[in-house]
Amino acid sequence: MASLDPVLDKDGVRLTVDDAIATVTLTNPAKRNAQSPALWRALAEAGRQLPGTVRVVVLRAEGQSFSAGLDRQAFTPEGFDGEPSFIDLARGSDAELDATIAEYQEAFTWWRRSDIVSVAAVQGHAIGAGFQLALACDLRVVADDVQFAMRETSLGLVPDLAGTHPLVGLVGYARALEICATGRYVTADEAVQTGLANVAVPPADLDGAVRDLAAALLAAPRDAVIETKALLRGAGGRTYEDQRVAERAAQARRLRDLAGLGE
Prior knowledge:
The protein has 263 residues and is an alpha/beta fold.
């Protein structure tokens, strides 16, 4: 990736912008990019700081692992400095706990905004919260050594960082349940075969494959990509006939814009 002055660089997250492409990098390889509430707030802030020129957002990570998941320090009585421990959170009211988890989820929800296409470049381990962060993106390019796993259920918890909806949408209910309930690893071959990943490449080729995909995404007019993304995102919640109506409305908007007759 090009060397650019960061727009944001804090708490294990760096955001750089090169015109239409933004890159969000996890920058704590010594801890295999383990996640914490501070990192989640930085990820949410990165989403808020995207300039309007950005069309493609690449999510990548330094080191051999994309993210080993939640930093286990969260489960200790001490927790993180300046943060309530998960034990403290469990002692709070239902409303307080719900609000805290909703705040954490903000780091995972902006990646599917209609005005951008997000691409996760995933190598090595993507465990738990790391798996859910990769799932937050529209597309996933993985290295041959990738190992996805949803370990929350094995720890007596549930995946709660907005990953269950995209997982079911990608691989279906039965396989999603089996992946989550067993906590097993999903390798690159299975990820591609099931639609969890778009393509798998050797680790040395990962950045190049993502650059090529970003260039291809930028080749189409922005408004056409936005309209198409909205159509596809909404298709699962529409009947066949409703989807036909949505297609016609979207195409009418595009034709009017191309003819200079848009509002």
